[in-house]
């Protein structure tokens, strides 16, 4: 009993450190881009404008870094703050097969969820043990190129996460380097899948997403499906069925900005009922078996379609084989939209 009493203050401290770490994640994902623009404008129209001038020179000089492999930092992947984010839910990483460092990989990450907590923590950090489970594999995530247009924020993405731009030139550059053991993760469903991220549902926008399949063939990178059980469950999103007024507005904003805002309900820092914090619900990221891909610079549409169909079957098999382990009912099935 005495031991439990002594552990209690530490547990409380960790509880709030985890919440603070997730607050930082939310700030970095949602608020930091806007803040970086405001700070840059304030500095530009102030006596400190010389700093804006030099940063503009640096920005131009460094413009293509997100498409040239970024600036991955092994030390940053091990920051303690990421462990606190992982422990908040908690997020766990599971492997079903080894990944040989003799090959490169494209990891299809599903589903997007609201803020892709599982994919980011599992692949951009070592907080869930990626370096231990898959030694000699060097992962990163490809994200929207527009994320690198925000001053100062881009430096955070390049240095703290090692993310690259999600376009064909960037991904092929990353995978076609002489060193093997590279893995680039693509959250395939993107902004459209975010709108499908309703708690306790399993819809993935994959039926017509074949660009990553073509890139895999062009680079010879093996395809690896990954499914994050529980990713959709950490927030409740307001109803936005296709054809509804809400979905129409979201679709319009997505066409303009390539990203659509959502209205979600979470929990509070000091309560479990309402707030902007994600619910403390487990996220289990399961990495599937790699699909062998033979390199071909100009694949035919038939070859792309056949590999896409195989990938969908592998992802569905991964879901069915693991759903009962992670609290998904036997009657639930993966839906491709």
Automatic annotation (TrEMBL):
Give the UniProt record's GO annotations in the biological process aspect. glycerol metabolic process; triglyceride biosynthetic process
Q: Which InterPro entries match?
A: DAGAT
UniProt keyword annotations, A-Z: Acyltransferase, Endoplasmic reticulum, Glycerol metabolism, Lipid biosynthesis, Lipid metabolism, Membrane, Transferase, Transmembrane, Transmembrane helix
Q: Where in the cell is it found?
A: Endoplasmic reticulum membrane
This protein's pathway reads: Glycerolipid metabolism; triacylglycerol biosynthesis; Lipid metabolism
> What is the membrane topology listed in the Swiss-Prot or TrEMBL record?
Multi-pass membrane protein
Check the record and name the CDD domains matching this protein. Answer: LPLAT_MGAT-like
Q: Which GO terms describe its cellular component?
A: endoplasmic reticulum membrane
Give the EC number(s) under which this enzyme is classified.
2.3.1.-
- Transmembrane among the record's keywords? yes
Principal localization? endoplasmic reticulum
Q: Which residues cross the membrane?
A: 12-32, 38-61
Under the heading Pfam families, the entry gives: DAGAT
Question: Where does the signal peptide begin and end?
Answer: none
Extract one GO molecular function annotation from the record: diacylglycerol O-acyltransferase activity
Designated name of the protein: Acyltransferase
Organism of origin:
Toxocara canis
- Gene name of the record: mogat2-a
């Amino acid at each position: 009993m005495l031991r439990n009493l002594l552990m209690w203050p530490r547990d409380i401290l960790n509880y709030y450190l985890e919440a603070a770490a997730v607050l930082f994640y939310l700030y970095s994902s949602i608020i930091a881009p806007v803040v970086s623009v405001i700070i840059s404008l304030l500095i530009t129209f102030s006596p400190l404008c010389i700093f804006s001038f030099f940063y503009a020179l640096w920005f131009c000089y460094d413009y293509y870094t997100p498409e040239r492999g970024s600036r991955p930092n092994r030390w940053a992947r091990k920051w303690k703050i990421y462990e606190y984010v992982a422990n908040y839910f908690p997020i766990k990483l599971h492997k079903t097969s080894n990944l040989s460092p003799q090959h490169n990989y494209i990891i299809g990450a599903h589903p997007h969820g609201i803020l892709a907590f599982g994919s980011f923590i599992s692949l951009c950090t070592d907080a869930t043990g990626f370096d231990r489970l898959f030694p000699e594999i060097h992962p990163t995530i490809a994200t929207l190129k527009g994320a690198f247009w925000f001053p100062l924020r881009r430096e955070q993405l390049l240095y703290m996460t090692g993310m690259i731009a999600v376009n064909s030139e960037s991904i092929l550059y990353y995978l076609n380097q002489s060193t093997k053991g590279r893995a680039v993760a693509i959250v395939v469903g993107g902004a459209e899948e975010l709108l499908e991220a309703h708690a306790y549902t399993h819809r993935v926008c994959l039926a017509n997403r074949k660009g990553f399949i073509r890139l895999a063939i062009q680079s010879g990178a093996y395809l690896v499906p990954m499914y994050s059980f529980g990713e959709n469950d950490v927030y409740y999103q307001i109803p936005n069925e296709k054809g509804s007024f809400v979905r129409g507005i979201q679709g319009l904003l997505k066409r303009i900005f390539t990203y659509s805002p959502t209205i979600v309900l979470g929990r509070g820092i000091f309560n479990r009922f309402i707030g902007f914090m994600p619910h403390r619900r487990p996220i289990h990221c399961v990495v599937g078996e790699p699909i062998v891909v033979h390199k071909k610079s100009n694949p035919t549409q038939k070859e792309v379609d056949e590999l896409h169909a195989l990938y969908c079957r592998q992802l569905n098999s991964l879901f069915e084989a693991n759903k009962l382990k992670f609290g998904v009912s036997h009657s639930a099935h993966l839906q491709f939209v």
